[in-house]
Amino acid sequence: VEGRSLNFIEEFIEEDIRNGKHAGRVHTRFPPEPNGYLHIGHAKSICLNFGLAKKYGGKCNLRFDDTNPAKEDVEYVDSIKEDVNWLGFQWDAEYYASDYFEQLYEWAVVLIKKGKAYVDDINQEQMREYRGTVNVAGKESPFRSRSVEENLDLFTRMRNGEFKDGEKVLRFKGDMTSPNMLLRDPLMYRIIHTDHHRTGDKWCIYPMYDYAHGQCDSLEKITHSICTLEFEVHRPLYEWFIKELEIFPSRQIEFARLNITNTVMSKRKLLELVKTGLVNGWDDPRMPTIGGLRRRGYTPESIRLFADKVGIARRDNVIDLSLLEFCLREDLNKRAERRMAVLNPLKVVITNYPEGLVEEMDAINNPEDETAGKRKVSFSRELYIERDDFMEVPPKKFFRLAPGQEVRLRYAYFIKCESVVKDANGEVTEVHCTYDPASRGGNSPDGRKVQGTIHWVSAQHAVKAEVRLFDRMFLGENPEDVPEGQDWKINLNPDSLKVVTGYLEPSLAEAKNLEKFQFERIGYFCVDKDSKPGKPVFNRTTTLKDSWAK
Ligand code: ATP
Ligand code: MG
Ligand code: MG
User: Per the database entry, which stretches of residues form a coiled coil (predicted)?
Assistant: First the structure.
């Protein structure tokens, strides 16, 4: 955004440019692990990395951090690419950490030869014991003093598949007394006899994040490697390997990860919701995944606006979900065409309107955008209005329909309630009205005032649709904050989905998947992929106003 001050990452970059570092080149990357679908937190990182590259005339790579075959899959790779594109970004190059397995292996050999790495045989439990705690210095493993020759031999045999999972690891000789626990001889390689989605059974040893990430950045000559704050304590390792291997010095910069109220974002937890069937897949419109937001009716523009408004922080914080919805309304207000739809119908019969007559009323598609033009809406003797727009015994200042009271039908006529029909339980089933033929278009020649305007659909023309009304998925601002021993899923909102039958303007029957509309006076809605010809399904993207603001 023009005009705002630089964030701290931009300040770092501009300082590097001023100092002529890397000849002023800016090269970032977005490095997802293909072990789940992207969420709004990733969107923040995508907007940041691609945005910086764009701003400084640089490049941004898409790199899959695929170093753990047990959890990763091409299904996720494909969805990640789709989501990045959908958000409006094109990567300059597509890479996979697995592209570098051979190089990483050779570098591990270099470190073994330098006496900096060793094969360790102690098991996980012993490893924990030897590592010590923050307050207790660790002890060196008895295998740390293995000769270079023995380490080279064992590492080769690890690669050749001579050992079982967990039997041996390759470790870096760090400092077993360091206050930074990560530096106490970090693992470089572990044995996993699992096929990898790209390299198949070529490898049975896989590099750890800390051993792989910096070198991958370095190989791609990434200048600024942006990650979230929890990696700050990993930075010494990032720099260590680069220095030991004397390779291109990429620089790691950390920023605060995005957290949003009433939302869980960890892929592990989202996967749990999918696996347990508590949501209908990764793209359930209640999910904070990009796919879920898209299906819900979010636009890429609204998400980019949000990422921009959130800004870049150095400290962890929690952003109110209403900011995301605010950005959505900002965007949809400008571009979503207006339609009339009744979600809780009450029949109105206009007793003095000729039977069989159908008039075509002019309706404005978008008051915010003249180029959107107009459309015709059929009007007839029997209509549906919103049940809430009628009250038999109205309070003061109820400007909608009530016995003896007049109201304006949007784009049509004034009508006045003359009587009601009730069922055996006393519930109003029909409202009988008269209309003023002179008020067509919404004004009466005698200039009399009618305060309220309500929407309607013609009963004989209306199209029935399944309408899914979503609410926030979790109750409580911080759903992960649960009493000791309780499951975080207790905070799920049991009413996050309500399904109703709506009566829509007939033009909506033809709407295509993901098409977005404002249902006048109700909210923003979008066509769901479950729609079938003649059986439309709409998702409520959001209400018109922040309905749960305090
Ligand atoms: P999760 O913890 O949700 O599984 P992750 O960090 O393990 O996320 P990755 O696939 O490794 O997921 O993330 C790819 C990139 O997106 C990383 O650079 C990571 O820092 C960034 N990222 C992930 N979550 C967020 C977030 N909530 N806010 C900002 N950036 C994020
Ligand atoms: Mg990660
Ligand atoms: Mg993770």
Answer: none
